[in-house]
Design brief:
The protein contains one helix and no strands. By secondary structure, the chain is mainly α. The protein starts with 19 loop residues before the first helix and ends in a 16-residue tail after the last helix. It holds the Pfam family Coa3_cc.
Length: 87
Amino acid sequence: MANSDQMPKVDFMKDSEIDKRLLQQIKFVERQNLVRATRLNRMRRNARYTGLLLGGITLSIYGYSIYSIKQETFLDDFEEPAVTVKQ
């Protein structure tokens, strides 16, 4: 890329067009953006933990259900009744 394609760098201390109030406003917005980004990252992390927790609970309930069904033996000893013929 040529240098003409890029925006020129702005030096706030040298540039006399930007006054102190505007510089304070820019810094305030940057701080607010940093706070917002920090909150968003924390919310994403908490959402991941919640999703993993719910997934783990779901899989453990499913695993326990399968395990408890395998232990049931009441149908294993089931014998069909003898057929009686009426005369």
